[in-house]
Each structure stands twice: as structure tokens, then as C-alpha cells.
Design brief:
The chain is mostly beta strands. It has one domain: Hotdog Thioesterase (Thiol Ester Dehydrase, Chain A, Roll). It is built from 1 helix and 6 strands. It has a 6-stranded antiparallel β-sheet with strand order 1-2-4-5-6-3, with helices on one face. Strand 1 and strand 2 form a beta hairpin. The longest helix is centred in the middle third of the chain and has 14 residues. The model has no long low-confidence stretch (mean pLDDT 92).
Length: 117
């Protein structure tokens, strides 16, 4: 069973990827993180960003680096998220990304990728 539900994914404009996902209340990420205050860990948010980029690409990517990451808002069980990722100008393997919860910014940063060999 996947740990999150992909509701919709598309190339929103030229190269921008846009995905809507929902993390079910019974996702294993919430077990023990934290028992009385379940929140989605940052690593899970970064994993969803990588999955969105990978799904709409013809490349076999691996993560080469992550920088300028800011976690601004807690993601709770059942939240519906919007993920956007866009290649940086002149750097098709480096993506600026945002994870939104409603109108609030949950996470943003830069993800550098490399082709898997």
C-alpha cells in the first residue's frame, strides 16, 4: 500500500510540474511521529517532491543534493498537498520546489538530480 495518494499530476506550464497528493490518516509515517501530535516528517515531503519529478520525466533520476530547504508549516494526517517543481533556468537537473497545504507554504527548497547510471 502506498503511503500517500496521488490525486493528480501534470505539466502545469512549460516545464513546471504540479501534483496534488493526500496523506491518509493511517500512513505509516504517522506511527510514532509523534504519538499524540502526528506530523509528516520533512524527509517524507522531500520524497513526494522527488516522486512527482520522477513520474513526469523520461530520465532515471537520483537525488544529488538538496539545499535551501525551509519547513514552514506542519503537515497533518489527511492534509491535501499541492507540490510544484520547476527546473531552474539553464539547469534542467536542478528544481526549485514548493509544498503547499491549502494556501500555506509547508516546505520549499532546491533539489539537484543526477541521471542514474
Amino acid at each position: 500500500m502506498p503511503w500517500y495518494e496521488l490525486i493528480h499530476i501534470e505539466h502545469a506550464d512549460l516545464d513546471q510540474i504540479s501534483a496534488e497528493v493526500q496523506v491518509p490518516r493511517d500512513s505509516p509515517w504517522f506511527c510514532g511521529h509523534f504519538p499524540d501530535e502526528p506530523i509528516l516528517p520533512g524527509i517524507a515531503q522531500l520524497g513526494m517532491v522527488f516522486d512527482a519529478i520522477r513520474r513526469l520525466s523520461d530520465q532515471k533520476w537520483k537525488i544529488a543534493g538538496i539545499s535551501r530547504v525551509r519547513f514552514k508549516q506542519i503537515v497533518r494526517p489527511g492534509d491535501r498537498l499541492t507540490i510544484t517543481a520547476k527546473p531552474q533556468k539553464g539547469r534542467d537537473e536542478t528544481f526549485s520546489f514548493r509544498v503547499m497545504v491549502g494556501r500555506g507554504l509547508a516546505c520549499s527548497g532546491v533539489m539537484a538530480l543526477a541521471v542514474q547510471t
